[in-house]
Design brief:
Elements (H helix, E strand, L loop, with lengths): L4 E4 L6 H12 L2 E4 H9 L3 H8 L1 H16 L4 E4 L8 H10 L1 E6 L2 H8 L13 H19 L2 E4 L5 H17 L13 E4 L4
Parallel strand pairs: 1-3, 1-4, 2-3, 4-5, 5-6
Length: 193
């Protein structure tokens, strides 16, 4: 069975789309942490933010990350803020291979412009908010990442090929079939399609 693969990055970076395709290709189960939170609570992410606030949402998110990273053979797309919890960062780093999908602010704005399910972007200046989030979270994404891929405007197939080649390269480095949970970082630039 394949080791867990965890996708991190800002909202709109392509974690769910790439994660689904990667899981299908590897014959693994795909899980989206935001969808898991909605399934457990019976409420949408925007509604949880509205009723309980961001701090309560982050506690729920940390519990889901703890539970999901303990499973085996999954591809997990995390929410953009999942790495804010030190415990979640530790679970991600030690329980699987972490791939940071890094996208430009312009790409993210293009993808999320009409998406009302992004509570943090329901502001007068979504660009400014994304820039603030990127500045705050970039060091945390980089801290947990085994592989960093700049997606640009991703062509899912090409991003998938880059990920698969990096996973294969990492697998080849394991001694006698043993795999370190957190291999050296790879920073791959994915050209715009």
């Amino acid at each position: 069975m394949h080791q867990n693969i965890f996708l991190v990055g800002l909202m709109g970076a392509g974690k769910t789309t790439v994660g689904r395709a990667l899981a299908k290709r590897l014959g693994m189960r795909f899980v989206d942490s935001d969808q898991e939170i909605e399934a457990r609570t019976g409420a949408s992410i925007p509604l949880i933010f509205e009723i309980e606030g961001e701090a309560s949402f982050r506690r729920r998110e940390a519990e889901v990350i703890r539970d999901l990273t303990a499973e085996e053979g999954i591809v997990l797309a995390t929410g953009g803020g999942a790495i804010l919890s030190p415990d979640s960062r530790n679970y991600l780093k030690t329980r699987g291979i972490v791939i940071y999908l890094r996208a430009s602010i312009n790409s993210i704005l293009h993808r999320t412009g009409n998406d009302r399910n992004r509570p943090l972007l329901q502001t007068e200046d979504p660009r400014k908010k994304l820039e603030e989030l990127a500045k705050q979270r970039e060091p945390l994404y980089s801290e947990v990442a085994s592989i960093i891929i700049d997606t640009g405007r991703p062509n899912v197939h090409s991003v998938l090929q880059v990920i698969l080649s990096q996973l294969e390269a990492n697998r080849g480095k394991g001694a006698a079939g043993k795999h370190k949970p957190h291999p050296p970082k790879k920073n791959i630039s994915q050209e715009t399609a």
